[in-house]
Amino acid sequence: MHEFSLAQSVQETVVTIAKERAAKEIKKVILKFGAFALIEEDQFRFCFDILKKESKLLENAELEIIWISGELRCQECNFEGKIEDIPQKHTELAPIFQCPTCESFATDIISGTEANIDSIVIN
Ligand SMILES: [Zn+2]
């Protein structure tokens, strides 16, 4: 379940930052997730809500998620652009995304794989 481990690493990172800055509490956590990172938002929020109760600093924090659209470049037909409805096939190594125009799997990801902490609001 990669949402849980991701939520765990976000929790650890923001609590560490807040402690370094001698914060009394974390009011808000803003994250940036790419469409190709394949994160289930409800699942992530559920995990994060459980984890945030483990820390007094984090227990009342609001969670904001900014979604970055996924863009592909196709090696077959030269399609380049945003993918709204993400068709995907999972291999053992990494998900492969299909070209919406010619359905080729020979695609390169231009953007949308990020799963980062954008910023936090502390008190
Ligand atoms: Zn194509």
Structural key phrases:
single chain; 123 residues; alpha+beta; hypothetical protein PF0899 fold; 3-stranded antiparallel sheet; binds zinc ion
State the shape: elongated
Low-confidence parts: none
Overall radius of gyration: 17 Å
Please provide the ordered H/E string of secondary-structure elements: HEHEEEEEEE
**What is the strand content?**
35-45%
How many strand elements? 8
Helix content: 25-40%
Overall average residue pLDDT: 92
CATH architecture descriptor text: 2-Layer Sandwich
The CATH first-level class comes to Alpha Beta
Cα separation of the termini: 32 Å
The overall number of domains is 1
Helix tally? 2
The CATH topology annotation reads as hypothetical protein PF0899 fold
Major sheet, described briefly? 3 strands, mixed
Which structural class is indicated by helix and strand composition? alpha+beta
Spatial arrangement of strands, main beta sheet: 2-1-8
